[in-house]
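User:
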Amino acid sequence: MGDRTMTLTSLSQELRQVTADLHQVNPLVGLLRFSILGLIFFSLVTLAWLTPKVSLFVGATMLAGIFYGYWLLCTHDMIHRTLTGWNWFDALMPRLISWPMLWPHSIYAELHRLHHGWNGIDLRDPERVQWTWQEYQQAHPLVRWYVRHQWVCDIFVLAGFGMIFKTFIKGVRFQTVVPRIRQQLLLDITGMLLVNGILLILLISQGVLLRYLLFWLILERVAGVIGQTRDHLEHYALWGRFTGHQLTQFYACRNLNTSSLVGWLMGGLNYHGVHHAFPDIPFNRLPEAFHRIQGVLQQHGLPLMQLEPGYLKSTYWWSRHPSLIGEVDNSDTTGRHCMIPV
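Assistant: Predicted structure:
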């Protein structure tokens, strides 16, 4: 036991050393990403609202939804204070861009902190999307059908609405675990009512309420597809606990091989194992951190983190191979659980 503890301590120290120079946040890099995505989004919104053609309105709004989905990913960095490092900016801006779409950022931020501590360790993890075998066996037949078709249902049917409702439900459920969530519930609800109340007054006065409802619904659908896809890919079929928290996160998170542009749009979250082990490393330094960590793992004779195909290929594959979390797979050196096809 003593040798094992010393080995883990030595490994942890070495991992900190090789990533020590990657933790510094460059505010300009994060601000540039936030500004570019926001500018593209607002440009497409302006184009949509200035055109009298319904087809062009829908097309421009769909494109705006794509960039809004990527823009919302910046709020994830703000939770970890790794976008700009400016506390006021990373606290204010995510709420301003989330509340019009009824996204409860404040609640999600608290749940996300639980997720970082519980991923692969505690099945209460609020962001766990994969069902266990026991949960499946106890479920209603209709719910079992949903589990077998979960990816399609969540991504294309529930989309943004599903993420919003799930976050509110989890917030209510976990407020006894994290009392601060009660304050965040009140903050989000108050902010949403205020922001959307002002919007409704303006829209009704201009006689464009129905047009706005269509606009909102399209944004919800498109941004929801992006959010749900990311949510499912990051950990599905990887549940397991290894020795030490950092190693657990390396192996209980999915890393994806993408182009540098897609990685930039996704805020580096394609290197999800690195992000979970070192959440204070900014998005632009995650690729370098990944390669350095792989070298340390290799030196210690530990399994390397895997790079799976990109978002589209991986989503297609896993959506066609749904599975359940079973017991620990003793043949898997990463401590992963057996995945039971369903």
